[in-house]
Q: What sequence folds into this?
């Protein structure tokens, strides 16, 4: 392939990507605007709260507890190399709250919620249920997208907070049971070390990741192709996009919170 | 009255509608016939604005259907989709009463449920299906729930996409009578797609034959047998010989 056509290919790929970004951005703006404009669908919102928030608790809890436990073991072993085993409570706290809590909860939400939203909406699209909604004078963005995005915005920060606490509890359990830390001292070190900024960043990340997860699920579902293959592609694409965007947003938000 | 003028629609290089002209007077029943894949469902969706035509005009009561208040426009319509398109997360009665449970036509839940059960009865379904989920029903039952949903809010204009496919002959008769009744008693305007010639004769005031992206023939149902149009004749006789190719 000659260099010029290679450049052309590259340019085309970049343009396609920019166009996709533009479409997603417009969709996101539209979705958010419908949260504020009536009619509202409280029943759909309630179901979304249940699905995104409540039913995600087990997977969030399990993810957090194992991560917190492993983190304590790693820091203890790593810290021992330069006689710094004592920092386990502080590093577990900061690692969970600032980074692992929001990111792992975000990724779990992408796996669990984004995929199910995308598959559900794509199936509705493929079986003409979205068309049927429209003919029944119901706006799909209001009925399907707005309740899910709002529910994710409100519940994922709560899930992150719970994940942070459970993660720290996991570290605490391992540290006090296996590594010989004093329980009271561990708790005191954790509480004294954390700053308000750490906690706020954790919750803000949670809210951002929740919105990303819900919007990507809805976007891919709504733009699904036809047939079972279309549903499969939409689901796969939504999880990929949500996961990558969550990690990218995490990088940006970490920069905003801690390097300015 | 609904009027389509020179409506065209292509999906990539598949030119489905190529200048479709059709007029459906208010309060009459139009039946569209035509081979599988000729664009009958696409034509209905164009009128509803679910698919945007590439060119041409669609008027409902003299007004451009693509402009103006979408909500007010759609509130006048009922539509039975070819695949029923029931919401599978909602029980049957909430599907039927969907319009009556929200928006401008909102009623009390128990009143909406009563109406739903009455509409289910009219399509030959007993009240015990009301609380089941659509996935638990047979294909023909789902179709009839879709029909009940289309007529639940008593719309002025109703589109039926193959209302009797998948039904036994007795149930087909019930549905044909129901559609006829909706037109004559409630004064609704109906547009029905069907492949079933006995349904055509039972339902239609007028018949239109869609082929090759255009209306090949249209006229009162009484003139259908003596249309002299080779497409219509072949369609009625169901013969493989004629201008309509058997492989398309
Ligand atoms: N959303 C779409 N995207 C791409 N092609 C489509 C779409 N909808 C319909 N088509 C194509 O348009 C053509 C007409 O489809 P349509 O569903 O209107 O057929 P039909 O006349 O209703 O047939 P049948 O009697 O089998 O229901 C088909 O070739 C179909 O593949
Ligand atoms: Mg069809």
A:
């Amino acid at each position: 392939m000659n260099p010029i056509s290679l450049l052309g290919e590259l340019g085309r790929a970049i343009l396609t990507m920019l166009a996709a970004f533009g479409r997603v951005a417009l969709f996101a703006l539209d979705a958010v605007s419908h949260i504020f404009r009536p009619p509202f669908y409280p029943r759909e919102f309630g179901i979304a709260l249940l699905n995104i928030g409540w039913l995600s608790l087990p997977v969030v809890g399990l993810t957090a507890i194992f991560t917190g436990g492993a983190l304590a073991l790693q820091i203890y072993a790593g810290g021992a190399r330069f006689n710094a085993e004592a920092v386990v409570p502080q590093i577990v706290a900061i690692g969970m709250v600032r980074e692992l809590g929001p990111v792992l909860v975000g990724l779990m939400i992408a796996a669990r919620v984004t995929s199910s939203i995308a598959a559900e909406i794509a199936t509705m699209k493929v079986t003409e249920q979205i068309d049927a909604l429209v003919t029944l004078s119901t706006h799909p963005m209001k009925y399907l997208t707005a309740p899910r995005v709002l529910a994710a915005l409100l519940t994922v920060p709560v899930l992150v907070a719970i994940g942070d606490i459970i993660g720290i509890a996991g570290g605490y359990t391992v540290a006090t049971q296996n590594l010989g830390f004093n329980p009271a001292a561990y708790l005191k070190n954790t509480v004294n070390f954390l700053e308000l900024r750490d906690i706020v960043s954790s919750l803000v990340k949670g809210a951002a990741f929740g919105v990303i997860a819900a919007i990507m699920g809805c976007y891919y579902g709504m733009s699904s192709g036809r047939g079972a293959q279309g549903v499969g592609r939409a689901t796969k694409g939504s999880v990929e996009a949500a996961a990558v965007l969550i990690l990218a947003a995490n990088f940006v938000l970490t920069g905003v919170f801690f390097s300015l | 009255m609904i009027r389509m003028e020179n409506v065209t629609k292509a999906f990539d290089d598949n030119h489905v509608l190529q200048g479709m002209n059709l007029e459906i007077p208010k309060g009459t029943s139009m039946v569209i016939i035509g081979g599988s894949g000729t664009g009958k469902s696409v034509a209905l969706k164009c009128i509803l604005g679910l698919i945007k035509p590439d060119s041409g005009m669609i008027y409902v009561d003299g007004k451009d259907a693509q402009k103006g208040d979408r909500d007010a426009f759609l509130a006048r319509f009922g539509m039975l989709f070819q695949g029923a398109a029931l919401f599978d997360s909602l029980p049957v009665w909430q599907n039927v009463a969907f319009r009556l449970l929200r928006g401008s036509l909102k009623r009390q839940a128990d009143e909406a449920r009563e109406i739903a059960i009455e509409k289910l009865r009219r399509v030959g379904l007993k009240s015990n299906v009301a609380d089941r989920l659509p996935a638990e029903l047979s294909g023909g039952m789902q179709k009839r729930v879709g029909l009940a949903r289309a007529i639940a809010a008593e719309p002025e204009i109703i589109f039926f996409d193959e209302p009797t496919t998948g039904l036994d002959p007795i149930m087909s008769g019930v549905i044909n009578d129901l559609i006829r009744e909706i037109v004559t008693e409630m004064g609704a305007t109906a547009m029905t797609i069907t492949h079933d010639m006995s349904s055509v004769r039972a339902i239609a005031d007028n018949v239109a034959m869609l082929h090759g992206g255009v209306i090949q023939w249209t006229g009162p149902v009484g003139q259908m047998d003596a249309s002299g149009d080779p497409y219509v004749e072949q369609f009625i006789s169901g013969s493989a010989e004629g201008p309509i190719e058997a492989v398309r």
Observations:
- Strands of chain B lie at 2-11, 14-24, 29-33, 55-60, 63-64, 77-80, 157-161, 189-193, 206-211, 214-220.
- Residues 87-154 of chain B form one domain.
- Residues B 40-41, 82, 161 surround magnesium ion (ligand 2) (CB under 6 Å).
- Chain B touches chain A through 22 residues (CB under 8 Å).
